[in-house]
UniProtKB/TrEMBL annotation:
InterPro entries: Na/Ala_symport (IPR001463). Coiled coil: none annotated. This is Sodium:alanine symporter family protein. It is a multi-pass membrane protein. Keywords: Cell membrane, Membrane, Symport, Transmembrane, Transmembrane helix, Transport. It holds the Pfam family Na_Ala_symp. The chain crosses the membrane at residues 12-32, 92-114, 135-155, 175-191, 203-223, 229-253, 297-317, 337-356, 377-397, 403-422. One of its GO terms (molecular function) is amino acid:sodium symporter activity. It comes from Candidatus Chromulinivorax destructor. It is found in: Cell membrane. GO terms for cellular component: plasma membrane.
Amino acid sequence: MIPITEIVDIIHISMTILLLFTGIFLSCLIKFPQLRNFKRFISIISSKQATESTKNTITPLQALLTAMSTSLGSGNIVSPPLAIAIGGPGALFWIFTYAFFAAVTKFAEVTFSIKYRKRAADRSIIGGPTTYLEHVHPFLAYWYGATALVLFAGWSSLQAKTLAETYGRLGVSEYITGAVTAVFVFYMLIGGAKRVGQFSEKLVPVMCATYLGVSLIILLQDIPLLGEMFMLIINNAFTPTAATGGFLGATALMGMRQGVFKAAYVTEAGLGTAAFPHSLADTEHATDQGILGMYSVAIDTLFCLISGFIVLVTGVWTSGVTSNTIIFDAFNIGLPTVGPAILIFTLTLFVLGTAIGNSFNGSKSFGFFTNNKYLKVYYAFVACMLMFGAIADTTTLWYMMEIILPCAALPNLIGIIYLSILHRKELRA
């Protein structure tokens, strides 16, 4: 019998190639929109229409921030350090490389989620990958929809586990953390798109500004060290990373795998998941919302790189620790006493935002099968998964996600490539 680790390795290598190929292919096909649409992006977010919506929609800006609240989660904080701890400093190079090309993948995902969205009997919107994949082949839509239900629940479980482990360092029971998180997320979800959108609109700027500010204080304490850090990243992007301290060493392929996979997990580019909240935006032009989604990848990547930089400059990546709390140790070294307290505050906001956003996105996938009926049943299921995640084994949760994530990405990437070729002129506009 093939060990599960070998199965995960095969899946990872295959999906690493496919994810990168899709981003590079679409960038060439659509003539690199990530380089030529920045002025249009500024024009969109500064327009009056960006803050207007109707009864069954949310504003384009709320849609963007709701999507960002899912991608800007604990993954931005704990995933890059884990990628470095396993694959070496070169993993950060591949996080950046994937994000650059895969931004176009997200552009296509969001654009098609607007183009192919539909309305339920109560006039509420049903959108996301399930609706645009239905136009490629119904099998792909049902494949993605069923897998996404598990994906979002698993994502929420990981968020709860990260929070439970962090508060566990303060002596708080995992059961208490899980129960409080589950109740709060359930309350937010039953308020619908408006409540989630308004929460995200207030949450994202606060958590971003706080985390960014404290991180820069840590990084700027020793500026010459930053130069050495960048050289470390570049030198290990294509060559093996030697063993040092508790770090056992890693191949260049391992760094690439960790970087690409963690970047896909964090930015959601290639997974299609960000298309769910974006599909609810009140916008006349599908590509406008696609541009908002595309440039949100830059913000996701910025936070990933900063988290990775902190782990490198503090040296904790060589400790041999490969848990969600490695960033906690880095903040404790870089800014003793105050650092861990601020990290816990921002991490709480990140986790809550991601858990709410992911669960809301999962409800949209659930609504595809039920015509937006019985959504509270799914909300209750998510609350149970949050509780389960808080007390479950971390390794088990990660193995589950590392298998489910490619299962969701595969039908989405097939559909995106097909639709992009079909509508390449529209996407180039």
